[in-house]
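TL;DR need C-alpha cells for one chain.
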Amino acid sequence: VFLQIINHQHFQTLSLENHIKVRPVAPPRGLILSQDGVPLAENRPSFSLVAVPEKLSNFDETLSSLAKIVELPQITRKELVEELKSSPSFANVVLKPDLTAKELSVFSVNGHLFPGVFVQAGLSRHYPFGEATAHVLGYVGKISEVEEKFVDKFNYAATLTIGKTGVEKSQENTLHGLVGEQTIEVNAQGRVLRVLERKPPVPGNDVILTLDSSLQQVAIDTFKNLEGLSGAVVAMEPTTGAILASVSYPSFDPNNFVNGISRDLFTQLTKSKSRPLFDRTIKGQYPPGSTIKPIVALSALEDGVSSVKKTNCPGWYSLRGDRHRYRCWEKDGHGKVGLKRAIVKSCDVYFYKTAEKLGIDKMSRTLRQFGFGMPTGIDLPGERAGLLPSPAWKRKNRGAPWYPGETLITGIGQGFLLATPLQLAQMTATLANNGYRPSPYVVQQIEGKNEIEIPIQKTLDSSLVSLIDSENWTLVTESMFDVVHSSEGTARGSGYGATVQFAGKTGTSQVFSIGQDEEIDEDSLPHHLKDHALFIAFSPVENPQIALAVVVEHGSSGSATAAPIARKLFDSFFAQGYQNNE
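>> reply
TL;DR here they are.
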C-alpha cells in the first residue's frame, strides 16, 4: 500500500527519469565567407574511427593492429587505452577523428577484422585556404578545462570545439548556434532503445568578412617567393576601413588544430624561430622608419617650422655643441634638398633638422592623430598598441630624461617609436583620406539562418587630423607620388609600367645600433641583424580605393623588397575589375 498507492506518483516519476533521457544535439557551426562569397571556413563531412569497449577482446592488441593501417602513434595508443578503460562499456570512443580518404578506404576493406570498431560520419571544421587565412580567421580546437568554466554549459553540452583565435574566437557567439535536443528511451543498462522526440539545433549564423579572397592569396604567395623572409601585409579600403587582405608570414595550417594537433607538430610550431603562430599584422611592433616622414612633413608645414626652402645634406647632422654625427642613409649626402625632394629621396638630414625644430611634443601629438600609440580597435583579439614615446613616457618607464638626439631619430621613425603593420595601414589610409582616420574592421555582416541579413555598421573615426591648409596635403601627396613615379624616387622601380599609378613611401628600420665611426657592409651581416624593410602606399592617387602597408623582417631595403609586394597587390586588385575613378 505504501509503495503502490501512497508513493505511486513519486516512484513513477523516478522510473520515467531512469528510462527517458534528454540528450543535447550540437548545432552546425556557421560559415565564414569572404566579401566575394568564397567560403573561408566551412563544415565538411568527416569520418571518425570509433570503438565500443565491450566489443573489444583486447584493447592493446586491437590498437596495435589498427596502427598498421591507420596512423596511431604509440603515445596516442596509450591514451586511448586509458580512455577505453574509463568509458562506459557501451559508449562510442573516438580512436581517430577525420580519417584521410586513403585511411577510410583501407579500413573499409579490412573492417571485418576489427569487430567493435566502425566508421562514424559527422561534420568537421575545414579551412580551404589553409595558411593563407590562418591568422585572421584563427581556428577552432577542443574546449579546454579553463574554457569550460566560462561557456554556457547548456548551450555547449554537445559541442566539442570552440574558437581559439582570430575571427573564430571574436565571433564565437555568432558562429556557434543554439543547442538542440532529443528525447530518448534507454534500458536499465543505459543503452538507447529509441528516439521519442527531437528538437533540431539552430545552426550558427554565417559571418561575411571584408577580405578579398584573391588578394589574400596573392599576398601570401608573394611572401612565399621571398626565400625565407618573414613579415606582414595589410590592405584596406581607405574610406571605410574594411580590411581587404591581412597576411602574416610564415603561417600555419589551421586544419591541424581542429581535431587535436599532434605534440610533435605543436612543438615544432611553437619552437620555430620564424614564429608561424605569431600574428605580425596586429601583434608585431616595428620601428616605422622613413614611412612616417610624410607625417613629420605635414606636422612641420602646419606648424610653420618648415617650408619648401632647401637645406644642405652633407650626409650627417650634429646638434649644436655636440660632436656626435647623426648619419643620413646616403653616405655622401643629398646636397641641397627641399621638403618635396627630401620625401622623394628620403633624406634623413632634412628630417633630423625638421624634428629638432618641431620638438618631440609636437611630433607626438601629430603622430597620435594618425593612430600611433593606441589600438586601432579592429574586431580581432590580441591587438597591440605599439609605442608612441614622449619625455613623460620615458621618465615613467625608463626613469631617465629625454635627450635631444632622441627627438632627431624619432623624426625618421627610429628610436623608441613602434607600430604594427595594421597601424601603418591605418596611417596610410588617413593620408589617402586627407585626414580622416578610418576604423579598421574585418566583419562585414552577419547572415542569420532565418535569411535576415544583419549589417555591421562601420563609420569613420570621429576625429579628424587637425591640419588646416589643404595645400599641405597636396604637397605631401605629390611627394609620395614622386617617390614611385619620378626618376629620383626611392621606389621608382615598383612604379614602372603600373596600370594605375600610386603614391608611396619606402622605409627601413635598424635592428641594432651602429657605432659612430663604424662602417657596416649590409650584405655581410647575418640575416637576423639586417634592417627591416617597409613600404606604405595608396592607389589611385585621386579617389583612393586601396591603402596598404608592407613589412618584411630583415628585408634590408624597402624599395627592393617591400615595394614590389605592394605593386603585385595593386596589380591584382585592379585586374579584378575595380574601377579607377580618377
